[in-house]
Amino acid sequence: MSAPLLLADWGTTSRRAWLVDARGKVIASAQDRRGMTTVEPGGWEAAFGELKGLLGDAEPRLSLLAGMVGSRSGWREAHYLACPVSLSDLVDELCWVEPGAIAIVPGICILREGFADVMRGEETQVLGAVAAGLVPRDCFVCLPGTHTKWIEVREGQVVQFRTVMTGELFAMLQTSGTLATQASGLVDAGPDFDAGVDRGLESGSPTADIFAVRAHALLDTGRIGNGAAYLSGLLIGADLRTGLAIGAHPTVEIIGRSDLAALYSHALARAGRKGRTIEGGMAAVSGLKHLAELAE
Amino acid sequence: MSAPLLLADWGTTSRRAWLVDARGKVIASAQDRRGMTTVEPGGWEAAFGELKGLLGDAEPRLSLLAGMVGSRSGWREAHYLACPVSLSDLVDELCWVEPGAIAIVPGICILREGFADVMRGEETQVLGAVAAGLVPRDCFVCLPGTHTKWIEVREGQVVQFRTVMTGELFAMLQTSGTLATQASGLVDAGPDFDAGVDRGLESGSPTADIFAVRAHALLDTGRIGNGAAYLSGLLIGADLRTGLAIGAHPTVEIIGRSDLAALYSHALARAGRKGRTIEGGMAAVSGLKHLAELAE
Fold first, then answer.
1. Contact between A117 and A110 (Cβ < 8 Å)
2. What is the pLDDT of residues B42-59, one digit of tens each?
């Protein structure tokens, strides 16, 4: 029986990896906080060795890595391909660290007059979800997170996308500055979240609207009970306002962590759309597996 | 000859104070970083004593303080008055720390169904500028800064206003997170600033647009030479987009620091408006002086 595949989604702050046997079955998996930012220059081979160790002692026949591992500050730079991009385009442009043995998946970009955007890692999840039949070949996808991605897929190709820095801004505002006192709590999808979402969807002024968290507290209005939920709702509402502008699809496929997916799904309902959730790891494994098949 | 007035604009992180003689002439002034956040609970009298010391050894006949010194975390809470508010409304609601001797100017608020906003300190500058004839009794004012304020004045009253967290967000994004590497430089009103302003004015998606700073760098497009200027322009453009929505006036009175005023004035020109700058200290002294006259 042939050696397994090693597949990894290696991001900025964490990584996930899977060992997949010849029949496509996951036989081991691992996850840790050893993201790109923790790897010293020159330390990538060792960090990859550790990752192999986490999955047991099998020597993989092929290792395929997606995510920030392929950025300029990663192991080896895998260039950004311009949209539209299919799974086979990604295979054609794999960046081989060790020919035939270890490859990194390229990112995707959009570059037009006055507009630029990039992704790295999400392309593998989205096209993987398409390849596995988890989402249709024509669909609209949201990957919520530090940098939320909204992605339009047509005939199995990523044709356009947009990044919104929702998670990063939320984390910054929660941990320091004027709003931190009111917004440091846990987010739930209650009435404060809803009020924030509605405001974010309608307003187009998030850099002003967020101040409401502070103003209501100073005025003791009692109208925002959970400042974290209101702030999260506001930023997610603004996120949807931007993302939904590029896709008119009634259903949005949400690929990601279940807690975030639930908040986005809830917010999408307020925008008159339906959210359907696909677990991110499953999408990533599928994408990497299909890429490996095409590469071999 | 009677004792002088002590007037102070005592904010979150710094304070400015003036000693004004019986003829209304400034005879001493001081400025330091002893803002509200540096004063321990119970330490306000001592901090005020220091301030008096900075201005010489004259015992003022009346001390009038505006700004965050009147907030819940300040010396004594001076409540927020609901718009519309005139100078004489502020006098009627002065918060006397020491009757007849030391008073704090109240803030202003707006509280409507689904909307709340507050200011503290800016009301004194704006109404002071009106009282001194530095701006018309009907005008539209911008006070750029950590929390930019856009204020509509009608017949010498503040009738409505809006806060935008431009300076705070810019500082956060410059010092940490994904954009910091590209946006840590100095801002100038060059082509990158202009491009940011135009985008901010037109888009309504600042939480997405800011990612352009990162995307252009990763793609080596060379189109954003000064990331700090682009980011600043983008946030100021979004600020204008929000602020100008509440005032159709062709001229905007900018009260503030000359460097910020220059950037806002430049950005306003791109939005088809004219900015006219009034120095913030002059406006504050005028406001406090007029308040003192009415209070005596």
1. yes
2. 999 999 999 999 999 889
